[in-house]
Amino acid sequence: RVSPAVARVEFVGYSKRFYAKQGALNLNVQPGDYKLRISAPHHIEQIVRINVPAGEREFERIKVDLKPAWTDMSIRTEPGASISVFDEREVEIELGVADATGTFSLKKGIFAGTYKILVKKDGYQSNLLENQSLEFGTLSEIDAPLSPLPANLSVLSQPAGATIVINDVNLGKTPLELDDVIPSDQYLVVA
User: Fold this and answer.
1) Beta strands 64-65; 2-3: pairing state
2) What distance in Å separates the CA atoms of residue 178 and residue 176, rounded to the nearest whole number?
3) Is the Cβ–Cβ distance between 12 and 47 less than 8 Å?
4) pLDDT in tens, 67-90
5) Long-range contacts for 10-18 (Cβ within 8 Å, ≥24 apart)?
6) What SS3 state is found at 18?
7) Which of 34, 43, 36, 40 is nearest to 20 (CA)?
8) This model's pTM is above 0.90
9) CA 159 to chain centre
10) What integer pLDDT is reported at residue 119 of this predicted model?
11) What contacts 89, CB < 8 A, 6 or more positions away?
């Protein structure tokens, strides 16, 4: 018996592979010593040695329980950004939200494998990270910076005609509409 029920059994050194059905696999093999590699998606493979003695009528019975290949992940991004992954079937799985420092940590909460990771937050351009390989037994640390979306800025003054300067650049006189302003630490002077 093998667990998970969809495990693959391979005789090391031979080209044949077999798949368990509902956790069971019955094979008739020649007497001898064999090394079996048992694997399944998202699980840690195991190597098992068996001996099939000559002239025996009894079956060699083995039981193998593969352990899940959980891994850890840490993503650095904007505080409050939501984190999702897409699995091999392109199904989006929401994982959570980055904390106040912009860190999202997941301990033994995702299987090792290759994923697309989507990081998004209102007011920012989403960041889709392709082919992110999460290895079993290691902490995958990922940087996922987000860029602010451009904004529109309307500047009015009373009376009209005041000069508008942003970061020492004269942009015109009020009333003034500015398109595609990138939010950042800037200073605005209305004079």
Assistant:
1) parallel
2) 6
3) yes
4) 888 888 999 999 999 999 997 788
5) 10/36, 10/37, 10/38, 10/39, 11/35, 11/36, 12/36, 12/37, 12/47
6) strand
7) 40
8) no
9) 55
10) 98
11) none
